[in-house]
Structures are given as C-alpha cells and as structure tokens.
Amino acid sequence: MLMWGGRIQALFRLAVRCILCVMGSASLPPGFRFHPTDEELVGYYLKRKNEGLEIELEVIPVIDLYKFDPWELPEKSFLPKRDMEWFFFCNRDKKYPNGSRTNRATKSGYWKATGKDRKIVCESQGCRKDLGFLSWKSTTGG
User: Fold this and answer.
1) pLDDT at 27
2) Which residues is 4 bridged to in the sheet?
3) Contact, 92 vs 1, CB < 8 A?
4) Which DSSP symbol is given to 65?
5) pTM assigned to the model
6) What is the spatial distance between Cα 97 and Cα 95, in angstroms, rounded to a whole number?
7) Which is nearest to 87 in space by CA: 76, 97, 95?
8) Which of 4, 30, 43, 135 has the fewest CB atoms within 10 Å, i.e. is most exposed?
9) Contacts from 83-86 at CB under 8 Å and sequence distance 24+?
10) Per-residue pLDDT tens for 55-99?
11) pLDDT digits (tens, 9 = 90+) for 17-67
C-alpha cells in the first residue's frame, strides 16, 4: 500500500506469469516500453494522482484490482499486452468495515502478499507490496 497525504491508495506492480498472453494493438511507437523504477512510480505517478495533477501520458489505469483474476489483467492495462508486467492504481478495499485488513478475494482465488513490504524513499515515501495469486481449493476432495 502506498500512503500519501492521508489518502490510501495501492499501486501494484504485478509481474504475473500467465499462460494466456493477449497481444493488443496500441497507438504507441514501435519499441515503446514502460519500465519505471519504484521511485518514479511513487515520486511522480502516485504523487500526481493523489494531488489531482495531470500526468503527461495516462499509462496507469484505475481499476478495482482485487476483483480480477490474473488472466483478466492484460485486457485492463493501457499498455501493449506483450509485456508480462502491468501497472494499476487501485483504491484499498477493506475486508471488514472497522478493520484494516484488505479484501483480496476474487471469483477463482485470492491475492496474497508475498515477501516483505519494501520502503520506497524519494521526494515522497511509499511502500511496495508484491502479491501472488492462489486459487481456491476444491472442497469436494476431487
């Protein structure tokens, strides 16, 4: 989760390995790649988003990330689908109204935090949280 000015938003840098890879046509020049550093994501993109300032090129969509399975993410990205790394802004969805736990359940499974949160320090401060996807287990035993 990235905290900025009292507003909590999550910026997830997902490198999800999927069997499905949908190639999409884009209006970007050949060879264009979007590979920002963590500091650039927090210090420019998230900061400007939270302050309501314009971002020169809208490359990070706002979605309800926790409602989607990994194979649904490529079609939600604004970037060419050939990369297996996508960037999204997502508001935090609480599991319980008075709690601090995040609701990460989808139709097919849930997003689980993996590893330690890493501090990102630049002009502003944030935290990087990596997520893995786990499928729901069969209750029928088969």
Assistant:
1) 59
2) 7
3) yes
4) G
5) 0.66
6) 7
7) 76
8) 30
9) 83/33, 83/34, 84/15, 84/16, 84/17, 84/18, 84/21, 85/13, 85/14, 85/15, 85/35, 86/14, 86/16
10) 888 889 999 888 899 889 888 988 766 677 888 888 777 777 777
11) 322 223 333 456 777 778 889 999 988 998 898 899 998 888 899 998 888
